[in-house]
Every structure is written in C-alpha cells, then in structure tokens.
UniProtKB/TrEMBL annotation:
It comes from Hexamita inflata. SUPFAM superfamilies: Bactericidal permeability-increasing protein, BPI (SSF55394). Signal peptide: none annotated. GO terms for molecular function: lipid binding. It holds the Pfam family LBP_BPI_CETP. This is Lipid-binding serum glycoprotein N-terminal domain-containing protein. It comes from the Eukaryota. Residues 48-203 form the Lipid-binding serum glycoprotein N-terminal domain.
Length: 432
C-alpha cells in the first residue's frame, strides 16, 4: 500500500507552518438533525463501557435537623448500570447545541457516611444504591477551537445540565446508630431533593466527554502517514450549527511529511457550503483536495508515468454536472500529448474500519491526434496505468464512526467545485 497508515499523535504540536482558517477547508462532514441524532446515539452506545470508568467526585449534603445538623457524604460513587435508548438534539442557527437523553435509566452504587456537627458527634457509615428510572437528561454544549494551546484542535464544553425523572429511589444499607435509624426518612428526602442536579452534571459531562474523546482520539489528532506523506485532519473552525444541521470543517490537505512548507492548496481559497442537501449525512471534498494528492504522488513518486510514456505534469481533476474529468499531459515518442479521462469515484475501506480511500476508476474520454503516434494505443495504456495506481493511492477519508460511505451517492457541484457523498445512516448501529 503506497498511501497512508494510521498514526496517533497525542501531542498538541503538529509542526505545520501556518494556522488554517474557515476558508481553508477542503473537506467537511455535515449531518441533518436525524443523522446527527443517529450518529451520536451510536457513538454513545458503542463507547458506553467508558462511562463505567468515570471518576465521580464525592458529594456532601448538609442536613439541618433543627437542634442539630449533620453532613451526609457519598463517596466511591460508581455507575453500576446505565441505559440510554434515545437521543434528541435541538439545532438552531449559531446557537449552542442542546442534547436530550429521554427515557434514560441509571443505577449508582456508593459508600455513605454522616457526621453529626454537634454533641454527641455521632457518625455512621454504610453502602447504598441510587436508581433513577425514566429520566430526561439534557445538556447545552458549545465548541471552540484551541487556537492558543492546541492549534487545529477543538473541544466541546458543557454550559448547562438538567435532569427530570419519573422515579428516583435510594437504598441505604448498614448504619447501626440510633440517629441514623430514626432519621433515615429525613435523610432520604434531603438526598432526593439535592442530588438530581449533581447527577445531571456528572452524567452529561461524562457523555460529552465520550464525544470529546472521539474528537481527541479520532479526527482532531489523527495524522496519517506511511512514513512519507501526511493527511492533515486539523479542524479549521468550531462546529458549525444551522437550523436542523451540524457540520465539521477539516483541512483535508496532503503533505510530504518532511516538507510541510510544500503546500499545494492556496491559502484562503477553499470553502464549502454546508447544508446543500437534506440527507442524513453528506461528506464533501473539494476538487483541489484530489489535485493535492495528484501533486504529491506526481512530484515525489512519479506515480503517473508508465513504461512507454511520461507524465509531464500532475493530473488535474475538475468536476462536471455528471461526474469528473482528469486532464493529463504526457510525453510518448518525444511527443507531448494532451489526454482527458473520465473519473468515476471508487471507494475503498482497506485501511481500517473507519479509514477509507476515495479514488477513481478511469475510462478513456479524449486524446490529441498526432501524426506518427498510435493515439488509441497510448490512451489505452494510460487508462490501464491510472487504474493500477488508483488501486494503491487516493484521497484518504476518515469517515464517521459507523458510517459506510460505500453506500453513499456521489453528487457533483462544478460551481462550488465539490463532490459530495450523500446518504442516510442505517437504523441499527454498524459494528465498530
């Protein structure tokens, strides 16, 4: 495989020579409300095991008993079970996103203890369980770029959390003191009245943490290389939110690993309209992102020259209303010939479950007629060679978790110079 392998870079410093802005996006992913809800719910379900490892801080609840008071503390709090069957989102233009998890159920285990604050300073301890049934958890979240600390990174922050529930049940075990036995109903009432905000904050921050983890361990820090080339996955802006859709904007550039200043794409000339189609998900790539790949492989590996011809320039792709054409200038028998090929998108998933390649299947379209040159034979050779190279190269796409873009429909936009892969997500989460 000539192209790219997965390499994780957990450092903030990428080493790229310049910061990228919103107009430097050669690649984007957009989901409408239904697609975003499906995707995030699958993401939570797939990584739900990590919720059980969340470190939950102790909570101390003061209980005023009139003549005396006590501090009731829950520690060693662990999530024993959680079920999140649904997810809903509120997506409004230029506003923070609100996530809702209706019909959720949660079970926590904990160690409790209390300390009376006045004579006779009674204390006691035991274990317990907290069970919440048919809860509605919500979180309002926003994103921001880490321009100063980690250029090209992005983090999602929780602004507000709430929890409503149909039933909350607390079971306290142990406890031998007379004051505990006599005040257990008061203690339970105080816990129920004060713990819902705490639970909402802990759980929703945990779920947002899972989403942030996907950003951190996935796209935002993913530099992909075979030792020679790098696919740049930096974010160029915060999450874009519109009325009923949400978008992520990436660099999409390809570099020679040892020469990051050799930048093919022109600064500030790439941008992609987000909500072009009302599909559940669309993934867009600029024509220049493909031409960037042609540039790298032509300049550094001479990939597009064959046994009987030489590529004088890199291939150059352009989109039409119905597809794509690739122009080539080759030399054969000391004669330069202009060739155009039809390029039909071909998707590969041979790198990993969530890393694929967008390449092309080439067919003959046109060739200059030159005296003394068998143009048709040359055209056949060029088509055959380009298809052989296409099997090993292409634009690497880290497609979204549990999304099989091989089932998506390519749509071409020559005005915006973009190819979009458009489709709906399956009803069931794909294995990851």
């Amino acid at each position: 495989m000539l192209f790219l392998q997965l390499v994780y870079n957990r450092k903030c410093e990428f080493g790229f020579p310049r910061m990228l802005g919103p107009n430097d996006s050669a690649q984007s992913s957009t989901a409408n409300k239904i697609g975003a809800e499906k995707y995030l719910l699958c993401g939570i379900e797939t990584s739900l095991w990590a919720v059980y490892d969340i470190v939950i801080p102790n909570i101390t609840i003061p209980i005023n008993l009139g003549a005396t008071s006590m501090d009731f503390t829950l520690s060693e709090i662990k999530i024993a079970n959680v079920n999140v069957p649904k997810l809903q989102m509120d997506l409004q233009q230029n506003k923070p996103v609100t996530l809702f998890l209706p019909e959720a159920s949660i079970q926590l285990s904990f160690v409790w203890k209390f300390q009376q604050n006045s004579y006779p300073y009674t204390n006691d301890r035991g274990t317990g369980d907290l069970i919440v049934q048919n809860a509605v958890l919500s979180a309002t979240a926003d994103s921001q770029q880490e321009k100063e600390t980690c250029p090209g990174h992005m983090i999602i922050s929780v602004l507000k959390t709430t929890m409503d529930y149909e039933k909350l049940r607390i079971q306290l075990k142990g406890g031998q003191s007379w004051i505990f036995q006599s005040l257990i109903d008061v203690i339970l009432d105080s816990l129920q009245n004060q713990i819902s905000d705490f639970l909402a904050s802990v759980l929703m921050n945990g779920f947002i943490g899972l989403i942030n983890g996907a950003f951190e361990d996935g796209r935002r820090q993913r530099l992909l290389s075979n030792g020679q080339f790098i696919k740049d996955e930096r974010y160029v802006d915060k999450v874009q939110v519109g009325n009923g859709y949400i978008s992520l904007m990436f660099s999409g550039y390809t570099y020679l690993k040892n020469n990051l200043t050799d930048e093919y794409l022109t600064q500030g000339t790439n941008s992609i309209t987000m909500n072009k189609f009302n599909a559940e998900m669309q993934m867009a790539v600029k024509d220049e992102a493909f031409n960037n790949v042609y540039y790298i492989f032509h300049k550094y590996q001479n990939s597009y020259s064959g046994n009987n011809f030489k590529a004088i320039q890199q291939p150059k792709l352009r989109f039409t209303n119905t597809g794509a054409l690739v122009a080539m200038l080759v030399e054969a028998n000391e004669t330069q010939v202009e060739i155009e090929l039809i390029a039909k998108p071909k998707l590969f998933d041979d790198l990993s479950k969530v890393i694929g390649r967008i390449s092309f299947e080439y067919q003959a379209y046109s060739i200059d007629t030159v005296d003394g040159l068998d143009s048709e034979a040359l055209l056949t050779q060029v088509v055959q060679h380009m298809n052989e190279v296409a099997e090993q190269t292409g634009f690497q796409y880290n497609y979204a978790l549990m999304v099989d873009i091989r089932d998506f429909q390519p749509i071409f936009d020559p005005n915006e110079r973009v190819m979009r892969l458009v489709g709906d997500l399956p009803q069931e989460c794909l294995p990851y």
